[in-house]
Amino acid sequence: MEQRSVYDAAKEIRIKNLQKLLNNDKATDENKYFIYNEIIVEYEKYSFDKALTSIEKNIEIANKLNDSVLKNKVQLKLAKLLVSSGRYKEAIDVLNEIERQNLPEILHSLYFYCLKEVYSGLNFYASVRSNKEEYSRLYNVYQDTLLQQLKKNSDESLALKEKKLRDKREIKKALEINNKRLNYLEPESPLYSLVAFERALLFELDNNIPKQKEFLIRSAISDIKLSIKDNASLTELAMIFFKEGDIERAHNYIVFSVEDAELYNSRLRFVNISNKLSVISKAYEERNLEQQKELKKLLIFISILVLFLLLTIIYIYRQIKKLSAARKQLKDANAQLHNLNEQLSLTNSDLNRLYNELSDTDRIKEQYIGTFLNLYSDYINKLDTYRKMVRKYIVSNKTKALLELTKSKQLIDNELNLFYENFDKSFLHIYPNFVNEVNNLLKDDEQIILKEEQSLNTELRIFALIRLGITNSTKISKILRYSVNTIYNYRVKVKNSAKYRDTFEDDVKKIS
User: SUPFAM superfamilies annotated for this entry (predicted)?
Assistant: First the structure.
């Protein structure tokens, strides 16, 4: 029910698409006739007025084409529409215009169906006994004639047999035929809605209310999804829920049915709904009056509670004011304590940082002091050995060999390599991940790759000294025995390879 507008919108779109075809310049009168037939099918159970207008348009086209078959077809559709909306006199007038002897055999079943439905309706609503008997007789005549026209197992034939059994109150046999009809139908089809409704009628006669409700609900759902406004299922459901005491649901259903009937403009449906609407609406209003009385009682009770609550709030407010003053004092004390805690926390952080820096510095100093002492001791021993060698050469009068020895740089190169080796070993002992950390600061395609026998290379030694706090290129050049320009060029080259050039050396200093 909540989605009714969605289903109606879908139907309106289908109708608009068909109407667009009518406006096509290439559409012939024959094309328009068949397009109007499709529009009539859409409007047939959706809007009586628009269905009638479309049928009248088709009558004009059939007359224009001077085609008696097409004219008879559309007149029978008109008669069927008038019958379904309770306009029996007009339907009889239309049927009387049709020349039965010239009617094609394929239209006989629809012709007799309309006559049967006309006299069925007149019989139901007739008040004069003689008229009622005549209408009943004609109904039976046309029903029997229709049965002869229909195929044995067609739905129309089965529907007539089911109705006969229903009228005789042979419910079990009628349900068996209804089962056959339902088995061939897809849910959410117009015929399914009708057959499900007729099944609910059988369960009503059998006094099986749960099953009656089930199939009325199935029929109503199908009607709503197909935008069938000329329906009866929801009205019957409303009466069942009304009898069960569910006034709210009954009222919702009957109002929904009235809205559908207004849109379709069916006099017959308005007559059927109006009596039920008045009964349900009256009960709904009475229930609302009872609810209003209950609400008044509740309002008085709530007013008393509100007064009591107001007095309680005043008392609580006074207590809160007292607590607020005490809370304020406590808050001020807490704020002071919080400030002291923050200051203490900052002091502790500074102390921890200083302690870590001092520990790091002490570790570096211990390492390098030990290394320095070992190197210093080694160089004293080497100087003594060199002194003894020089004395030996002089005593042996081998000054020329001694002079040649002093010309060679091999001794210096050996000592320098030993210096680098000791420096690399000592530094990497303190910063074992230095090489990886430096590479992490460089671009992926500019990584420093050491040879297998190398611990550090010249670039890494320069930045190792920077990590130790020696940033001056002159001092670095003296330690590593390179020119200042060479040191500068190495520094620039590596910085240019860094991901973040401007902060590279600061980042190196932070390596731990």
Answer: TPR-like
Q: Are 114 and 80 in contact (CB under 8 A)?
A: yes
In DSSP notation, 145-195 reads HHHHHS-TTSHHHHHHHHHHHHHTT-HHHHHHHHHHHHHT--SSSHHHHHH
Catalogue the E-assigned strands of 291-399: none
Total residues found in the chain within this entry: 512
Distance CA 213, CA 443 (A): 78
Last residue of one domain, picked from the residues 220, 246, 265 = 265
Look up residue 277 and give its amino acid.
Answer: L
Q: Which of 265, 296, 323 is the last residue of a domain?
A: 265
Distance of alpha carbon 171 from alpha carbon 510, whole angstroms = 96
Residues contacting 498, CB < 8 A, separation 6+: 441, 442, 443, 446, 504
| Statement: the pTM of the whole predicted model exceeds 0.70 | no
Residue 442: φ, ψ to 5°: -100, 160
Residue 111 neighbours by CB distance under 10 Å: 23
At 248-307, the pLDDT tens digits run 999 999 899 888 888 888 777 777 787 777 788 787 777 777 777 778 878 888 888 888
Q: Which domain holds residue 261?
A: 150-265
